[in-house]
Design goal:
heterodimer; A: 106 residues; mainly beta; 6-stranded mixed beta sheet; 3-stranded antiparallel beta sheet; B: 121 residues; 7-stranded mixed beta sheet; 4-stranded antiparallel beta sheet; 0% helix
Chain lengths: 106, 121
């Protein structure tokens, strides 16, 4: 079965750039999406179709996807961005989520 | 306002059954695929099942295939998940989520608040 691999944790200082990766076989041939989940809350879509931001998502969130790796980049990271982030893709009519990355802003 | 509201969770014994519901509002329900995603306590997201806007096609994770059935009633704007032969490992918060089109393949742009299912004797 298809797998997406994310680092368990990433740390960043306020105002700096955070990058979270998501690896999967030929992931660049699929669309990647990213979700943010804060403690006790439901997931929120922050990036879809590799690079697009839904309305209401700040411009500091951006995405890329090429080869075997997709990435979520948060520029000028703020304390409010501290959360778990999950990548997601489709494979043969099934949905695959990455294991999640805890972003710590310190 | 686009909204999804899950219900039907609770405590059930191993081997038992539950039916979850997800009431949708604020959008043309029949035009969008829907999905169920679960999250075990302290764990990550796990996709469970999906259904196209018409209800004509359904999809399941291997972990629930043969035990869970997804369905929808477009006249009632409601998504369902019938869960039979429940196991302890099915314990999780269950979220319904809206797809970005009528067929599969897109992202999930709206999520419900979730309903907790606990399987325990």
């Amino acid at each position: 079965s298809y797998e997406l691999t994310q680092p368990p944790s990433v740390s960043v200082s306020p105002g700096q750039t955070a990058s979270i990766t998501c690896s999967g076989d030929k992931l660049g041939d699929k669309y990647a999406s990213w979700y943010q989940q804060k403690p006790g809350q439901s997931p929120v879509l922050v990036i879809y179709q590799d690079t697009k931001r839904p309305s209401g998502i700040p411009e500091r969130f951006s995405g890329s996807n090429s080869g075997n790796t997709a990435a979520l980049t948060i520029s000028g990271t703020q304390a409010m961005d501290e959360a778990d982030y999950y990548c997601q893709a489709w494979d043969s009519s099934t949905v695959v989520f990455g294991g999640g990355t805890k972003l710590t802003v310190l | 306002e686009v909204q999804l509201l899950e219900s039907g969770g609770g405590l059930v014994q191993p081997g038992g059954s539950l039916r979850l519901s997800c009431a949708a509002s604020g959008f043309t329900f029949s035009s969008y695929a829907m999905t169920w995603v679960r999250q075990a306590p302290g764990k990550g997201l796990e996709w469970v099942s999906g259904i196209t806007g018409s209800g004509g096609s359904t999809y399941y994770a291997d972990s629930v295939k043969g035990r869970f059935i997804i369905s929808r009633d477009n006249s009632k704007n409601t998504l369902y998940l019938q869960m039979d032969y429940l196991r302890a490992e099915d314990t999780a918060v269950y979220y319904c989520a809206k797809g970005s089109g009528s067929s599969t393949g897109g992202a999930f742009n709206i999520w419900g608040q979730g309903t907790m299912v606990t399987v325990s004797s």
